[in-house]
Amino acid sequence: GSLVRTFTPFYFLVEPMDVLSVRGAAVIMNCSAYCETAPKIEWKKDGTFLNLVSDDRRQLLPDGSLLINSVVHSKHNKPDEGYYQCVATVESLGTIVSRTAKLTIAGK
User: Fold this and answer.
1) What CATH number has the domain bearing residue 74?
2) pTM for the whole thing?
3) Contact at 8 Å (CB) between 24 and 105?
């Protein structure tokens, strides 16, 4: 019995889009990936993985989207504004990275 490698579909169903928000609002960056084995979804902001475990403002939704409960934005503190990417990983297959979506916070 020879091992036949078959193609396994693994792709994004939804990728994040640019978002314009205001301070204090909730924002959802949409992301959903398809594979027979459920992909592990992570998020990058400005090229760095977000640690959502200890984050009380940002959370990963069941479909892979990122929810930011209340956007923080002040003159010297802009932790939410930036470039986001959704990263989906399937252990035996590899990793795919979504397009980059920009979150812009509108001023007063």
Assistant:
1) 2.60.40.10
2) 0.91
3) no
